[in-house]
Amino acid sequence: MEYSTDHFAAARSLQLATYIHISMATFWTYDYACSLHEEWKFLLRSRWGKMKALYIVTRYLPFIFLATDLYLYCTPNENPSKCRVLENTESGLGIVLVIVSESISRSPHLMCLSDLIHPVFFILRTYVLWHKNIILLTAMLSTFFVSSQSNHHTQASGRCISQIVLATAFSIAFTTGVPAAYATSGVPGITGCYQSSTSFQYFIPFLLLSVFELGLMVLTLIRAIQNWRINSSRLYVALVNHNISYYACSFRELTHVRAVFLYSSTITVFPEVLSLTNVFASLLLQYSYQNILYDFEFMTLAILATRMHLHLWQTDQRAHGSGTLMHIPMSDVPSVNSTA
């Protein structure tokens, strides 16, 4: 049997995708092993609550996600229907993974300090950094809601499963249509399958939400620069640093940029525009190259969310020397004294 150029191009894309997914699984396992001691200390000493449950889901769901991923790309499969089922299962797991990191689940009036780092509070935290400015909060929530509704309408034909929660930039990027067509490699020895039909509509709300997150990062930077002489609290520094670091994951620069403020607090901006790369890849590339970084971004966000959550919990534990969690009104976060 003779193979065309398209056959070899698709086979190469599947090979590259397989290597990346195996590397990603290895990295996740290594990260888990390195933080196992700290994680079990957190799980055993922290009190049970909604945020701890969300942490456990965010931390351990990737194992199921990666197992599905590796099965999809590493086992021989000549049935496109089976590929569709596996891809949709993987997409569903990925969206749940992002939703548990991004959904608002607590009252903005009272929250646990160790919960502040979780991504669910990034909008509220920006609101707090601006001294609970109602106009700013209304603008942020309105923009976020409009972005989510845009995602809902463009993905309606694809039966988007994230419509019950405000969608985020990442859920938009990775949500694919259920009835999409899939193809397997025609070259013997190449495993995996790829989506042969493409829809470009979802990149619009994805880009809109990416710009929205950039706006939140800028607002955080402005407030941090304004307060750098006033507030030297360790918790406040961690709050701002984590806000910037998480947003920077959506807009990773071409070089490492370091901004020093809040008494020598350093923020590292990541070296690649990962989210926007996914948008352009979906528009310009073919075969498996279109979504080759989708799952990588899922795992990056999960690692960031759990690592940051652990870090702030440890900061609180060192400050108080006990397993209890301190609760303070959000309005007091920017003015926590230096003894915290």
What structural class do you assign from the helix and strand content? Answer: mainly alpha
Main beta sheet, described? 2 strands, antiparallel
Element pattern in H and E: HHHHEHHHEEHHEEHHE
Whole-number tally of structural domains: 1
Number of helices: 11
**Order of strands, widest sheet:** 1-6
Specify the helix fraction band. Answer: 55-70%
**Percent of residues in β-strands:** 5-15%
**Could you list the spans in which at least 5 consecutive residues all have pLDDT below 50?**
103-121, 147-174, 249-272, 322-340
Could you tell me how far the N terminus lies from the C terminus, measured between alpha carbons in angstroms?
Answer: 71 Å
Q: Overall pLDDT, averaged?
A: 62
Shape: globular
Total beta strand runs? 6
- Rg result: 21 Å
Keywords: Membrane, Transmembrane, Transmembrane helix
Organism: Suillus plorans
Protein name: DUF6533 domain-containing protein
Transmembrane segments: 129-148, 160-182, 202-225
